[in-house]
Design a protein that fits this description.
Elements: H1 12-46, H2 72-84, E1 92-95, E2 97-98, E3 104-105, H3 110-119, E4 124-127, E5 138-141, H4 145-148
Length: 152
Amino acid sequence: MDKQLPAIYNDPYISEYFKILYEEHKENKINETKELLDYISNMEKKIDLPLNNYDVFINISGGIKIKESSADLAVIAAIISSFRDRPISKESAFIGEVSLTGEIKEVYSIDLRLKEAQAQGMKKAVIAQKTNLKLDIKIFPVDEVSKMIELF
């Protein structure tokens, strides 16, 4: 049963607007949950992490909505870090899309992203591809999630 809106929202236009926002939010939560389940299933199969016995919750600081797949690798790194109780250095960046088979895919504008990571104080970056860019960041190119776990 849906909650009643406060009386201030009795205006039909405002009420309809909030109903639309609620439905969009509900649909986004369903999609985010499916994506998280895909990550977990992938890690159980590819790197033998028994996550099915745990509650997994992902919270992005500040309520930022991530609509780009280049953050896949960072989410998986955070889950592995938590499961193994090994914190990730705050000077590390993880940039890459992860397929359902565990392959880490290249992302566009990697050179620009690495320059920005360096500007933000990052010292290490785990990415899908090698780069010829000369930066002060140590690059760890990996092509599968199972190889990334060796870094932990």
